[in-house]
Amino acid sequence: MKFWLNLGVDGFRLDAVAYLVEREGTLCENLPETHAIIRELRKRLDLAYPGAMLLAEANQWPADVRAYFGDGDEFHAAFHFPLMPRMFMAVKLEDRKPIIEILDQTPEIPESCQWFIFLRNHDELTLEMVTDVERDYMYDEYATDKTMRINRGIRRRLAPMMDNDRRQIELLNGLLMSMPGTPIVYYGDEIGMGDNIYLGDRNGVRTPMQWNSALNAGFSLADPERLYAPVISNAVYGYQAVNADSQKRSEHSLLRWMKSLLQVRNAFQVFSRGTIQFLNPSNHRVLAYMRQFGEETVLVVNNLSSSAQAVELDVQRYKGYIPIEMFGRNLFPRFGNSPYLLTLGPYQFYWFQLRRICSSGACRQHVHGSSRLFGVESEVSRVLAEDVFLSDDLLRQLMSVGEVDLLVGMSSLHAANTVSHALDEIEESFQRNFVRQRVVIVNVGGGDNDEDSARAKGHDNLAEKGVRVPGITSLRTSHRVAANVPGSPSPGIALRTILAAADLLRARACAVVSPAASNLTPDSVANLLRPVYREKFDFVAPLYTRNKYQGLLARNLLYPMSRALFGWGIRELFSEEWAFSGRLAALCLNQDVWHEEAIQARPEAWMAISAMASDFRCCQAFLGEKSQATKGLGRDIVEVLRQTVGTLFWCLETRQSLWLDSGRSQSVPTFGPAHELTSDPTDLDRHRIFEMFRSGVTELEPILSSILDPETHSEIKSIVSLEEGKFRFKSGLWVRTLYDFAASYHHAVINRDHLVQALAPLYRGMTYSFLAEHSDSSPAEMETASETLCGEFELQKPYLMERWKAKVEVKS
Known about the structure:
alpha/beta; 33 helices; 26 strands
């Protein structure tokens, strides 16, 4: 063994291992001495060659073979001989009974061990582990010519045994790949090779591999007479008709089909390690079973009959799960209270992945009635129950769509007047920029009678609607899906619905837009989607042309703070529009955070930070002018801070490992200009802002004293007393103030919601100082000031880390 192991051999198949040791006066079968030798071999193998394996070839009943696994200290794996003839028997009988009976007799094996299963191998199809009646039946059906028989078996290959019926060949391979164990495919069966029953012994199934249509089927350049066996050359299975090279060129060949079968199987651990639970429908011609491993659940349904069959399956245990056909990734109706009806064509089989898009955390909380999310009223449950979150109507619409390349989602709540315009802009973008792609628009609306539902539904081509772009013809149907959520869905609920649709439809590139946004154009939609679809980015944040006094919260707080802490220079972390990949959608959908108020209110920043935490590719895309009125700094700023800064602080709390260990910030790729500023005048009442700062700080003095470091608090009190004309809120003090708030949020020194609200007067003071200092600054000078502030945030990051890790006594 060492000789071969040193050459790189990975394992050994021990032939007829049950008879390894001979002892006089016995049948020499299953002797204790055999097991002792095997244990010693295994011990030495594991010690000197970890990873090498021993495979037992013991043509016995499963209960007898079980002893050769020991306690996981003998064979790593063993062939399951009795299963093989019963798969053939079940297909010919059109009855599941033989397969279920033998697997019911198969005992549990150690966790580290495995069964090896197969349809055919280099020997005869052995009929030793069947009854006399079963053996006679197999001979009559599969070996009518006695030349096909040898010993107690049948010396034939798979394709000839199935009369070269592609449907039966696929069904048996589907059974093989979905049964418990590791499947073994005998060479040549993947292309449907034939046999030569007129060769002696077992050589009829050992003819040369048929690689191509050249001399000797590409197996050897030697003279044909010198081959160890002649190649198959008849009209049906001859190497000119059946060979690997020709099947590689054909998209619908058996070889291509086998490759796709293996790709699907290899994507799921459940097939190799999962449990099996047989369903028992009244139709005995249908073999159905559940495979389960960890979070993976797969339903396999096989029609063993040569005619079409209908079957009703009892899947009550899986009520609410969505079956997804695993080859085409198409959705099927959700499991409900009634038996699940399926129809199958002759020898057809289905593999369904069962999905329930409802994490344990999401299902954990189900608070009915009105709730308040960062001050925003929501009439829906705090977290929707599964049957509401993905309604049957929504699933029916998604089923009609199928797999897509591009998905654009939006929430039409409070945007009734602009939904129609937004839909047209998105579809025009599809028609101008993504003519060949499969596309869908998902509109999440509030209420069961949403007046926009009819407009959002449907799958009309633009040309059919008379909104055709001149000179351009869309090649595919443009789908619209309307998801009506009871009440007023929060941004988090809307996003979760969009993510679920993206995941179920396997969308490659997705975007979220606001129908109320005045800058929504076909170009802006395309600019969001292109980096994901064509450049393989996972998250795309927007960039805009802004008035120099717009976006002050982002400029002076959200951007520099998130850049310094998380290490990524994304300017618009909070926005109404962004894009993401299908894999980021799946990652976020499966996180147990949907009950959190931060996610319900402003999920976009959390999604960006999730991409950063997973080391996904992030970028920014220029979308043009952002014509948004500059908001005042009155009471509305309190709600804005609760939604944005509150979410940012929550992300700091939940992603500590990401920002505590990050180094200096890095820029992200940008498509288009980095940003643009204009010098349009502003109508902000600076005097009123200053008075609100001064009165707010005075009113909140006790709260600020518990939040701020004593030195920071002292400096704040000193600048409050300054005259308006001399007042300046220096950047260093501003950074320490924000870091004090973040650290106090972490230590929960007071109610966290009250803490974030207490930032409002200080933000007003910073804004007043900024406006006074930059009233005459050019856009370039303001950008320089912004970079200086970013540098200050990075410089003082150790201050935050020190305060974050310090032990703090929480005041009652």
